[in-house]
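Exercise: predict the fold of this chain.
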Amino acid sequence: MPDLLIFVPCQRAIVGTDGSVSAIVALDVLRTAVPPDAPQIPKGSMIPLSWNILSLWYGTQEDIGITYEQKYELIAHGNDILNDPSTAFGSQQSVYEFTIASVGERRPIIHIIFSFPVWIEGPYTLKLLLRKKGQEEEWREIATYPLVVEHSQKLPVPSPPPIREFIQKSS
């Protein structure tokens, strides 16, 4: 199996033309405003959030020519898999294939996601799983990353008016 160099959920992952890899703003806590008198958030509720999951693999001699499958699982409270087909989040591709061509090859994989499940408050675990393609072997858990979803009772503070509007009212 290739060596994992990086595994991080972030706002944006970028691979430069020179092969350099950048992760912009690692995710850790996601807060969403919920009015105090709001009913239970329904299962499947999502917030629009563009985010990426970045993994960077390093090829070894044993990996040359082998195609791997990588997937992630987002789990709440230790047992609810949130990216399964029964949720809106599960409709997005979560399995990616890659082949190592040479020793020392760095292979970045970026999952691009446009929403985040928020119907469960508390700790989440993002899991990275890997297996060889074409074999009926079990998925191997390679890494985990902790996340937290918080439901805030405080409503967002309104933004101040644009400066032009402020100047006009002051005159």
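Check your answer against the key: DSSP finds one helix and ten strands in the chain.
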